[in-house]
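User: tokens in, sequence out, please.
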């Protein structure tokens, strides 16, 4: 995979832009992930569109600021990245977990620049207990490194029932352990700020909301309730996935995304959130 970096004002991001076509799909990864989280999904999506994926600030091989940053910085980063790459037309965005929060916030801030949203195991709010947990995890990984938080984190996002493909799991574990502890800690604190529930009814775009049947972090009932708050949302469950459906069930996720993003005449009828 060719690696590209773009130097924005005061920040460098790693990205990949591949494919061709009139439409661009942007993929936004989860907390603790990187653009490699979408490797298996990329091979399933095929041709016919441009696909942009990148490492969020503090993650992957993007720059790791040593000072803290906010959730809103991630939204601004996407704006600046698209502008720098000359991507002007309305885009489709698929965000996983915390990446879905960036997708929603960007769509609300720049509604004319977005065509459709796919929200996969969306983490759009953080309750008080989890705010404290994220603060504790942030402090622990900065003090003791990523291994100190790996087991507790992955037991919920990648539960043992989904580890039958050991190579896929161990690859994900290796990437997780390779995270920069400071960048990961800052991102924990940044995403602890998120609460988009009060703004979901303002989303004007078509949305696909997907839940993983084995998701221990964002259970199906919680995701279905979020879908009800979005005016133009379709809802579906992916049976063989947990919180990281692009890793755990890439073929099924690709099938859902391609159907959702197909031209209107080719779209299957999905259940409306109701």
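Assistant: Sequence out:
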């Amino acid at each position: 995979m060719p690696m590209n970096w773009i130097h924005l004002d005061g920040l460098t991001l790693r990205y990949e832009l591949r494919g061709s076509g009139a439409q661009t799909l942007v993929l936004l990864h989860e907390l603790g992930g990187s653009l490699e989280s979408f490797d298996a999904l990329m091979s399933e999506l095929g041709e016919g569109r441009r696909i942009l994926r990148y490492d969020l600030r503090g993650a992957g091989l993007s720059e790791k600021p040593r000072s803290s940053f906010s959730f809103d910085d991630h939204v601004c980063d996407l704006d600046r990245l698209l502008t720098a790459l000359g991507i002007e037309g309305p885009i489709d965005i698929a965000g996983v977990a915390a990446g879905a929060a960036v997708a929603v916030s960007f769509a609300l801030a720049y509604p004319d620049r977005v065509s459709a949203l796919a929200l996969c195991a969306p983490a759009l709010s953080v309750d008080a207990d989890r705010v404290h947990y994220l603060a504790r995890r942030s402090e622990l990984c900065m003090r003791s490194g990523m291994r100190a938080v790996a087991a507790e984190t992955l037991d919920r996002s990648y539960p043992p029932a989904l580890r039958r493909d050991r190579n896929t799991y161990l690859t994900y574990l290796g990437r997780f352990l390779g995270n920069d502890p400071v960048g990961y800690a800052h991102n924990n604190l940044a995403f602890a700020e998120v609460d988009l529930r009060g703004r979901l009814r303002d989303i004007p775009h078509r949305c696909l909301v997907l839940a993983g049947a084995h998701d221990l972090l964002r259970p199906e009932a919680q995701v279905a309730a979020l879908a009800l708050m979005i005016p133009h949302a379709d809802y579906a469950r992916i049976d063989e996935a947990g919180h990281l459906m692009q890793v755990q069930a890439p073929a099924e996720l690709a099938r859902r995304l391609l159907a959702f993003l197909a031209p209107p005449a080719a779209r299957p009828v999905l259940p409306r959130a109701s």
